[in-house]
Amino acid sequence: QVQLVESGGGLVQPGGSLRLSCAASGSIFSRYAMGWYRQAPGKQRDLVAAITSDGSTNYADSVKGRFTISRDNAKNTVYLQMNSLKPEDTAVYYCNQIDNRGRPLVRSWGQGTQVTVSS
Q1: 82 to each of 30, 64, 108, how far by Cα in Å?
Q2: Ranges under pLDDT 50 in the chain
Q3: What is the pLDDT of residues 69-97, one digit of tens each?
Q4: Is the separation of the CB atoms in 96 and 33 below 8 Å?
Q5: Strands (E), 45-119
Q6: Most CB atoms within 10 A, among 18, 55, 90, 105?
Q7: Does residue 87 contact residue 27 with C-beta atoms inside 8 Å?
């Protein structure tokens, strides 16, 4: 069974940066595309960044140019570098394995990591 553990969130001022990590276990990590999702209070969970098994990336318009997704297959870990953070980036961030349409594959989500952008 795949397990996903997110970390790295916190409280940051607008314009600041954070780096999130997601450690995956229980599957052959390198074979799967991975995605970072976020869910703000009262809103649906949305995919904001994705990376394929060969390292191609894609981003939601709202984070393009500010966020960078990367992966280390040797460590079974995917990262999300978030720069120029805005209050509207405040959310719980989750990772998951994804299919070629960006749909999550692992039904059991991790606990997520809270990101709060506030002065």
Answers
A1: 23, 10, 25
A2: none
A3: 999 999 999 999 999 999 999 999 999 99
A4: no
A5: 46-51, 57-59, 67-72, 77-82, 91-98, 113-117
A6: 18
A7: no
Closest alpha carbon to 33 in 49, 19, 17: 49
Q: Would you list the DSSP string of 55-74?
A: --EEE-TTTTTTEEEEEEGG
Q: Among candidates 63, 34, 33, which has minimal Cα distance to 48?
A: 63
pLDDT at position 76, please? 94
CB 39 within 8 A of CB 46: yes
Q: Are the C-beta atoms of residues 48 and 37 closer than 8 Å to each other?
A: yes
| DSSP assignment letter at 116 | E
Distance between CA atoms of residues 91 and 45, nearest Å: 9
Residue with tokens 């999300």: 80
- Locate 8 and state its tokens: 């790295």
Distance, CA of 4 to CA of 111 (rounded, Å): 8
